[in-house]
Amino acid sequence: MDRYVCIHCHFYQPPRENPWLEAIELQDSAYPYHDWNERISAECYAANAFSRAHTGDGRIEKIVNNYARVSFNFGPTLLSWMKEKSPAVYRAVLEGDQESRKAFSGHGSALAQGYNHIILPLANARDKETQVRWGIKDFTYRFGRPPEGFWLPETAVDLGTLEVLAREGIRFTILAPHQGAQVREKGAEDWNDVIGGRIDPTIPYELDLPSGRKISIFFYDGPISQGVAFERLLDNGESLANRLLGAFSDQRPWPQQLVHIATDGETYGHHHTHGEMALTHAMRLFDANPEVRVTNYGEHLEKFPPTHEVRIIENSSWSCVHGVERWRSNCGCNSGGNRGWNQEWRGPLREALDWLRDTIAPLFEGEGRKVFRDPWAAREEYISVILDRSDASVDEFLGRHAAGELTSEQKTRALELMEIQRHAMLMYTSCGWFFDELSGIETVQVLQYAGRVVQLSGEFFGDSVETGFLERLERAKSNVPEHKEGRTLYDNFVKPATVDLHKVGAHYAVSALFENFGERSRIFCYDVERENLRVQTAGRTKLILGKARITSGITRKSAFVSFGLLHMGDHNVSGGIRDFRDEETYETLTREIGDVFKTADLPEVIRTVDKHFGLETYSLKLLFRDEQRKILHMILDQTLSETEGIHRQIYQQNATTIRFLSGLGIPLPDPLFASAKVALNTELRRAVSGESLDASAINGLLEESRGIGIPVDSAGLEFALQKRVEAIADDFRKKPDDIDLLRRFEEAVGTANALPIKVLLWAPRTSTTKC
Questions:
Q1: Are 200 and 252 spatial neighbours (Cβ–Cβ below 8 Å)?
Q2: What is the distance of C-alpha 726 from the center of its chain?
Q3: CA angle, 634 as apex, 631 and 637 as ends, to 5°?
Q4: Sign of CA dihedral 57, 63, 67, 70
């Protein structure tokens, strides 16, 4: 009997980008990382790219790229983020596929995926095709080859979806064992019932489609996959290997057996700490075992074509026992923990989105024909622009699809129409229905995509689209009383997040009060070209007057604005922004406001600014989240420094008493506890962020904190130390002949390893290996 093993990892994160900024804003829940993508990348994607293979005594023997050994797929939207924000890991993923082709007879281990994780059986025919084609084109762009296999989001399947896959040249997909209905050996007449997960997963199956096409299906081993995901099978790499090897059986009639599993890839490192190391160890055990061979699906299919046929259970998935009801009804599937809640909101939410999609479709066609020869054909190829937003790429796309020579205004209109369609698909991202509550962040995210559709549609079709959408969204009821229903959520979480060119201009103007911008700046996906900026100060009061052109890097829509803002030292900013009128008006208002400011008559300054711009109290709430936090820290820096100094002084003056009380087991009085907490955590942050790292000093502070019962910000310390080591490693990479840098790097790594805190050091490994 020939034994083969394959482990498939489905790597995916829901899109978290602000639909108007095309970027992920600061997420405090991911602390100490900027956002959850960054955190999960460090804990899982990077960990698997640079996994540690240990010797028997615990020393690191080798750094291994797990992507070269497993079968895997990455969500296209996740890879788009990774390419920009974590390029070293992105390169390792692509290199893993390249290496796998060498190991597996020319078959790469990477699979394509539906573009933004739509439940394909619930999509209309047009979206189904676009999602598959965009997924394939995204894959080919990144991996440099067409995909052989395709991962269906949530393994949700119907024959219509499989027809699209087969038509696009996909050879196989992967399903859960309970999605099989009947099997038979090729040439046999009778079908055998395998409903209930009774299908044998050790061979591939062939499915005949109504069109006459065929597609192969692998059904993963359900119990072992469950063990990996939920039963701590990753506590030990040997346990994982033995469990997989134990699934082979001499009782099966076929000579070749494939034992394979499929789980969320985040299981290996994020959900299960050090799961990537267990995976690495298991693979090494397989490589050392002459009775088993690691393979991937493409290689196995070429060597052993299906000998059996299969019929599937349509409208089924791997994560809903009711089929695909989790994404359209109160089927009972949820994440648990909220007794008394229901998911009746799922149906009305989908109905509202369906109405929005179907309402804008004919309007899109009508407007689209004014700028495109075939609007829907243009949509199919718009993925080329999403992958490359350069002017050359956009012009090439418009050159292929435009209905004649377009003006600048028509080009913007064409791009806006494409963005309507892009966001109309993004709003179906499956995570919006997966969890328990309408007001969850994943559902709010899909509502924001819908909000972007409504905003862009409004520029063509007026307010009727939004009115009809909100009437239907109101039927989706929240489990949380204060959130009421979908319309309330839209008003509270979507409309405030909406961005237009004036809001970007206001962000730029407020930010300019606190930092210096060049003549050209980039604010997320917007370009700002400043033509004039005048700054006057009087003590803590600052006045800025200016004009600038704001241009969307997505649609090329542009606005020329002037602004005047007055800041009196606190968090409030008075002033306004408006469309630029003419040079004479601008010179008149800047001169008039400037002259009044020189008199130091602040009430008169405020009245004059109001006269020209309309007075509003912007405050820092206006700023996008990252810049808001940055500027608040600038404003509070001196106050925080003074406060920390006071706490440090109180702690030092009372340290002996504090230790004495702790020794007696007496709780510290709140004022002393607060001062000790601030003082010790401040000293620890400074110690791990300093130019030189002193392990004994850091350990002393940690011991002091433990001795008197002060909670330490371990996550923040780990992150700060990690960044310090990475910075030294990066310096050494640039100057590999600098012996002093090498010494500092060795000392930093030694300090990190000597401390009783976990420090992720994958980045230093990638940096130093390039030297």
A1: yes
A2: 23
A3: 145
A4: negative
